[in-house]
Design goal:
By secondary structure, the chain is α+β, with helices and mostly antiparallel strands. The protein has four helices and ten strands. Helix content is 31%, strand content 33%. The chain has a seven-stranded antiparallel beta sheet with strand order 3-4-5-9-8-7-6, sandwiched between helices. Strands 1-2-10 form a three-stranded antiparallel beta sheet. The protein is globular. The N terminus is likely disordered.
Amino acid sequence: MALQICLALSISSHNSLNHSPMSSSPSTLISFSVQTKKKTVVELSSLRLSKRELCLSSFVLILNGLYPKLSKASLPEEMELQRYTDSNEGFTLLRPSSWIKVDKAGATVLFEEANKGTNNLGVVVNPVRVASLGEFGTPQFVADKLIQAEKRKESTIDAELIGASERSGHGGLQVYEFEYKVDSSRGGLKRIFSAAFVASKKLYLLNITHSDKPESPLDTHTRMMLEEVLHSFDAAPTT
């Protein structure tokens, strides 16, 4: 975000003196003298304050001009989202437009960040016997199963659930969402966002994985984008 600094050197306007012919009474002369003196003090005070502000603002502008690249470098790279719909399998979601589609056994679709394959999102679709997630269990019950499955992996050092929730999808579809952390011997600490729903006797599972190491934690901007992807996962509208 560009830093905009507005410099203004202005003196407050004052009511003009009455230039109508003055009477020669002493009271009128005293009143005129007090107003003039007061006006002069206000103007000088405003001028001195404006100079101080000008010096300080100029210093900030100089620093901003000397280090424009440093300011921009501290901002996270913008991530644009693009709609992806699989009409055959019947799901839709937003995905980072810069992430590339790759083939992987067992995944219905998989997108990876270029040169950072550990940052990825994938969808798996499998047939099930239940008609809704509610028949399988509550969000907390399903979350516990996910954490247990993560902990059974040889590469997992630790896994911790952060949150589990439920929302309504297309046509009132029941959708569960989860967030948890996994410390793995393959890639270190990761943040995982997951969503699941059941439609037409098929289980749809979205997994978003992103590095979240202590030396390079997940920044707020990227987190917001990944959460938007998570919330966009839904059954594709039928035409």
